[in-house]
Design goal:
By secondary structure, the chain is mainly α. About 80% of the residues lie in helices and about 0% in strands. The protein contains four helices and no strands.
Length: about 130
């Protein structure tokens, strides 16, 4: 009478709406964890201003989507960078060149997303006000 072992992660056995409901809860927990990071908080506060501004600044849906999308992309990349840093820190606190490389690459990804967002927003502001 060997009973099957319970799955390590109960989410793996859920289906349908129960899976979606629990996945949404995990996502909200991730956003709460992100809020604990100063960089994510700064980007989220900027998004509170920039997301509505994207609808005012954009002249058609594609511009609005591009402006809003770059703001959200920065937040997504920041969350992924924080996840990478958390995993590296979980593996061990000692310095290792691969740990440094992973953290540096995550940071570079954030930088590139910020540069993309800044470039798109500056181009939109230039087009709207200087042409």
């Amino acid at each position: 009478m060997n009973e099957p072992a319970a799955p390590v992660n109960p989410q793996k056995s859920r289906t349908g709406l129960a899976r979606l409901w629990h996945a949404a809860g995990y996502s909200l927990a991730g956003l709460r964890a992100g809020w604990g990071e100063p960089a994510f908080r700064q980007e989220a506060l900027a998004a509170i201003v920039l997301l509505p501004a994207s609808f005012w600044l954009g002249r058609h849906w594609a511009e609005m989507a591009l402006l809003a999308g770059t703001v959200l992309l920065v937040m997504v990349v920041e969350l992924l960078n924080t996840a990478i840093e958390s995993v590296v820190d979980r593996v061990g606190p000692e310095w290792h060149p691969l740990s440094k490389r992973a953290k540096d690459m995550g940071s570079a990804a954030v930088l590139l997303s910020l540069l993309l967002a800044a470039g798109v927003w500056l181009a939109a502001l230039h087009t709207r006000f200087l042409t």
